Design the sequence.
């Protein structure tokens, strides 16, 4: 019994550590609700350790045996609810309540069944299998496929099948003639030891997916320009990089640089608040007119960049002209009767070319547009590609 009691204590302490960890996440992030429900899940499930430790010494073992069953199942149900909130696949409280009450009623009905039989073990373990499988299905239904999500899915799936294995383990190892004898049975050591491993694994995985979500959100927010709502320079470069790696001759890309004309005069004449409104208005124009896969960023004070994958130079010029015309016709708060215009430079992005190289050519075209009177679109010459033939290689060796 001493070994089983020790494992109960370990499981209880581990659960409290996870309770504290989830409460810290709830207090310091937007994941308050799902983290609180997960903390409640671990806290309620840990009560089973107290029920099971008291079980051999109480004159009412049925109360504590059912309490141990109910606390674990209630904890798992709360975790299911919290994971549903986190993954956007919520469970209806009425469904969880009906499942929980029905399972507890079944546990009461089988309490006097002979222990160590298939009938008793099946009806006792099946609710735990179902709730863990239900939790694992949340990840599949959410459509999220990061490594952290997959690890959590497999741990929850493993936990579900662990309860199926416990049906046969209870019969093979023996779970005691009565509920009070449970802690003295070989099955108790196996159950508590494996349970501790799964508690740690599932708890760490749940914390991992939440922390990863917060880190990704922080990284994304650090790459967004607050005024325009578009990417900042670092965010733009980071999001365009994967497109550049995939470029080839059949799947080109185009880069557009845009600069608001005489923006300093707007700031000087109408104030910085109006200048901010101009930035916001132009940002909305870009976001509304760029193709769905395009990436837009504010890379300077009044300078913007748009990368459009799978588009050639001619089509990119048409898109840029649409943006130019839309801004010129837009009326902006604080500028009554004043039209704001922008100049555009467009360059094709070649396979193997760096973003800096494409931006230099687009910047040259933008300079030409400015010099030619502003409020216009100019295109850069396509990048020069030097193709060395096999014959030239052979002639070079002679």
Sequence:
């Amino acid at each position: 019994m001493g070994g089983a009691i020790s494992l109960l204590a370990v499981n209880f302490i581990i659960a409290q550590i996870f309770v504290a960890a989830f409460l810290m996440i709830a207090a310091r992030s937007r994941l308050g609700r799902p983290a609180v429900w997960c903390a409640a899940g671990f806290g309620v499930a840990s009560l089973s350790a107290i029920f099971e430790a008291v079980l051999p010494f109480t004159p009412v073992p049925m109360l504590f045996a059912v309490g141990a069953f109910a606390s674990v199942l209630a904890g798992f149900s709360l975790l299911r609810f919290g994971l549903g909130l986190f993954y956007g696949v919520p469970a209806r409280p009425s469904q969880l309540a009906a499942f929980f009450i029905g399972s507890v009623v079944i546990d009461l009905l089988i309490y006097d069944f002979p222990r160590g039989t298939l009938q008793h073990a099946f009806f006792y373990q099946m609710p735990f299998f179902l709730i863990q499988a239900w939790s694992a299905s949340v990840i599949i239904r959410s459509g999220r496929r990061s490594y952290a999500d997959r690890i959590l899915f497999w741990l929850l799936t493993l936990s579900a099948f662990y309860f199926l294995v416990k049906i046969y383990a209870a019969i093979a190892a023996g779970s005691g003639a009565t509920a009070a004898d449970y802690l003295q049975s070989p099955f108790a050591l196996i159950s508590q030891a494996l349970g501790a491993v799964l508690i740690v694994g599932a708890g760490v995985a749940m914390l991992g997916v939440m922390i990863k979500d917060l880190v990704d959100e922080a990284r994304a927010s650090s790459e967004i320009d607050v005024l325009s709502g578009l990417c900042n320079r670092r965010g733009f470069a980071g999001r365009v990089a994967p497109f550049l790696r995939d470029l080839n001759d059949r799947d080109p890309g185009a880069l557009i640089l845009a600069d608001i004309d005489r923006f300093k005069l707007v700031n000087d004449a109408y104030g910085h608040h109006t200048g901010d409104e101009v930035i916001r208005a132009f940002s909305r124009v870009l976001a509304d007119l760029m193709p769905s896969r395009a990436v837009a960023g504010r890379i300077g004070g009044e300078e913007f960049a748009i990368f459009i994958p799978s588009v050639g130079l001619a089509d990119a010029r048409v898109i840029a002209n649409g943006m130019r015309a839309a801004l010129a016709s837009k009326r902006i708060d604080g500028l009554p009767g004043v039209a704001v215009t922008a100049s555009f430079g467009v360059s094709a992005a070649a396979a193997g070319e760096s973003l800096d190289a494409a931006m230099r050519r687009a910047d040259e075209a933008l300079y030409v547009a400015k010099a030619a009177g502003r409020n216009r679109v100019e295109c850069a010459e396509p990048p020069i590609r030097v193709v060395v033939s096999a014959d030239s290689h052979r002639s070079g060796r002679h």
The chain has a mean pLDDT of 86. The two ends are 89 Å apart (CA to CA).
